[in-house]
Write the structure tokens for this entry.
Amino acid sequence: MQSINLRKKFIIGNWKMHTTTADAARLAKAVVDGVGTEQQVVIAICPPFTYLALVGEILKGSYVSLGAQNLYPEKDGAFTGEISPTMLLDVGCRYVILGHSERRHILGESDAFINQKVLIALGASLNVILCVGETLDQRKTGQTETVLDRQLVQGLAGLSADNLPRLIVAYEPVWAIGSTGHHATPDQVQQAHTFIRRRFGDLFGEKAAQLLPIQYGGSVKPDNAAAFLSQPDVDGALLGGASLEADQFIAIVRAGISELKTEEKSTFPQSHNPNLERPQLNAP
Ligand code: PGA
């Protein structure tokens, strides 16, 4: 495998089922102010559906993109309670999180259903963050790689090469998400990311694998962000809890920037910026 890292860092906040109108507006404004003119890392926030339009207005003209937490895999139609990719694009979304473990395990989403969503979202030109990750039981019984393999192979079935530049994979071990009392170590995360990149390479080729951004998610906070982001195969963080506090979110964005600078210094002593290589996922 090549050693040159051509990947950007992606810091993305998943607000889950939190905030009110007032909280969402306040938080979005604080994030925009905190990010300022920062363009070195790709930044997005994913509020609940009800606040997408409001937050979208606040993000206009900023370097923070808008994302959604889910969609239904149809353009429109009689699907009571569901939201289509067209609707997400209409309110200014550029990203969508799919296959989050809370949707897999609480809402019972299958790999096949997630795959339909991935295909329709990419077909609609949304950038997709596909979440994969094992439960604690699966890890304890040595099934981590089998689970990641299944989620990748089935979740990405039928994907065309054209769509690969709009895909991010997020490794999110279910046992490390939220306040479970369990934390993944940077080594465990790097190992899982290496596996994901290798399997992705088997599926889509080595070049695509080297360009694939793989985020880590699971209790990433300002005090541990640098340890995760400095792993060679960790290309950003998908944040739950920390994205609900603007200060924490911004601190993690800053950790991403420092890490990028360190990598660039060690890999490219001159002025070449390797992160311009994948412009499709860049901010607004
Ligand atoms: P957490 O959530 O940062 O609160 O652990 C991560 C996620 O679910 O994406």
Remarks:
- Residues 14, 172, 177-178, 217-220, 238-242 surround 2-phosphoglycolic acid (CB under 6 Å).
- The mean pLDDT is 92.
- The longest strand covers residues 93-98.
